[in-house]
Amino acid sequence: MSKKLTGRVKNPYSKSFEAGIENLRDEIQLALQWNRPSILIAIHKSKAGQTKSQLTLEQRILDFNKKVERIRANEKNIDLIRKIKTTANRENIVFFISGFENTNNSSRDEVFRLLNMQREFFIENLIRAVFWLTKAEAEKLPHSAPDFWAFRHRTVEFAPTRD
User: Fold this and answer.
1) pTM
2) Are 75 and 103 contacting, i.e. CB atoms less than 8 angstroms apart?
3) Out of 22, 30, 44, 67, which residue is the most buried by the measure of CB atoms under 10 Å away?
4) Per-residue model confidence as pLDDT tens digits over 128-155
């Protein structure tokens, strides 16, 4: 039995998208409320989905009167923590860290190695950060940076969109 659809067809993953955003938002809200760090991993299959999620989550963070600072990894920017260390007013910022696809395998390994070695920095300095990863990057991270992986607070995997 078929039904005629009227109006716009809803994205079958919209609930998963909203649930993922709310999970990240709730974790950030609790970190701010309890003055604690938060290392979050957000996994997307596509860059388009990642961009949409970042923009949506940024709006929710702005509702907390906090800012988002974007840090993009690339072959010339592998020490991501240096950028965080030099950012003023870190207690009012949530860092969005992405761009790992802009690195080659050896520089990506170096980025992950540095995160692994400096993982305590996030905890000791009450850093709130969302690492936006592709599925392949997320699969590599626990092997390349196992201690950093163990320090994370939450991992959210977004369902693929059908746009």
Assistant:
1) 0.87
2) yes
3) 44
4) 999 999 998 999 999 999 999 999 999 9
